[in-house]
Amino acid sequence: MARSARWTNPTTAGHPAAGNAQGRGGDQTPSEFLENPSQSSRLMAPFRKHVKPKKQHEIRRLGELVKKLSDLTGCTQVVDVGSGQGHLSRFMSLGLGLMVKSLEGNQRLVSRAQRLDQELLQALNKMEKRHPKVVQRGPRHSPHHVVQWVSPTALCEELLLPLETSGQGSARLLLTGLHACGDLSVALLRHFCCCSEVVALASVGCCYMKLSDPGSYPLSQWVAGLPGHELPYRLREGACHALEDYAERLQNAGPGLQTHCFRAALETVIRHVCPELRRPGVQGIPRVHELKIEEYVQQGLQRVGLDPQLPLDLAALRAQQAQENRVVAFFSLALMLAPLVETLILLDRLLYLEEQGFYAELLPIFSPELSPRNLVLVATKTPLGQAFSILENEDI
Hints:
Blueprint lengths: L44 H4 L4 H21 L3 E5 L5 H9 L4 E5 L2 H24 L13 E4 L9 H4 L12 E9 L1 H12 L3 E9 L14 H4 L8 H6 L4 H10 L5 H16 L19 H11 L10 H8 L2 H12 L2 H18 L3 E6 L10 E6 L6 H6 L4
Parallel strand pairs: 1-2, 1-4, 2-3, 4-5
Antiparallel strand pairs: 5-7, 6-7
Helix pairs in contact: 2-3, 10-11, 10-13
InterPro entries: Methyltranfer_dom, METTL25
Organism: Cricetulus griseus (Chinese hamster)
Protein name: Protein RRNAD1 isoform X8
C-alpha cells in the first residue's frame, strides 16, 4: 500500500497490477499536533470546535487540496457528498471561500450541521471584531445543506443543480467525499464520468465491505479480466482495519486484544441460534477487558436483536476463550493482506476513470497514523500534468 508516495498512472509502468506502489513513510506525529495533540495548529480555533484531531487533520488537508483543484480546473461550485455534520463543508466554504453544496441523507445530521454553521459564523464575527487582521473580511457563504440520498446506480439531479448564489449561467462542479461509505464513493465516480457539468473529483473512500457485489467492484475492464479478481466480504472488511493502530496494540499486548476472541465466540452462538444472520454489525461494547466472555456474548446478542437470556454452553465458551492467542495470530495474518486488497480496489477505480478517457491519480494526503484510509483519488477531464504534484504539497 502506498501510504506516503504519490501513485502515478499504473498502466505506464508496464503492468497495471504493479501500481507504482512505494513504501510507507516513518511513523511521525503530524507537525500540526506537536504543540497540542488535540488541537491542530494549522486551523483557527473556531474550526476546531466540536472536531476531533483526526477530523481536523482530514478536513484541513482535503479542503486545501479541493481549493487548489478548484482553482486549477475553474470550478464554480463544490459538492460535498455524504457530508455528515458538515465539518469539511464548513471549512471549505467559511474557511477557504468556496461555494459549497452539502448532500447528506440523514436529516438529523443535516440539522446539526446547520446549527454548527451558525455557531461558527458567530464565532468568526466575534473574532473579526477582536482581531481584524487575523480573520479575513468580506461576505461569508455558509454551505447549502440538502437532505439527499445518492444512489450508486442512478443520477442524482440535486447533485447537479447549481447554487443560485454562484452567479454563473452554467456550473462547473467539483465532487468530493471524505470517507464516503461503500457505494457512495462509486456513485461519485459515475457522476463524474456521466455528467458534463462535473469537471473534477476528489474522493476518499472507506467501508469497502459495504460495496455492492457485483456492481461496485470491479469497475474497470482490466481488473474484471484478471483471473481470481473476486473479493469476498471477509477480504473487503479486513481492508478497512488500521495497520498502524493494530501494530501498536500488538506491541503493547494489552487486554483489549481479547475482543477478537470474544467476537468470534459470539459469532458461533449467533450462527447456532440464527443461522441466517451472518456477520451482523455489533457496535463497540465498552470495557470488554472487564467482562466475562458470557457477559460479552449476552450483550452482543441483545445488540443484534436476539434474546440475551438464551442458555449458553459455558464450557464451550471457556474452551474458545482459551484459543485467544491463536485468534489474534489469525487476525494478524489476515490483516497483512489488507493493504493488498485496498490497493486492488483503489487501482480498479483509477483504471476505470482512465478507461473512460479521463485523468486520475491517487495521492496520499493524510497521515496514516491519524487516518488509515489516507489516499485521495483525484480526477479531471483535462490533463493537469505536473500540476498534480501541487495538490499533495502542504500549504505553508
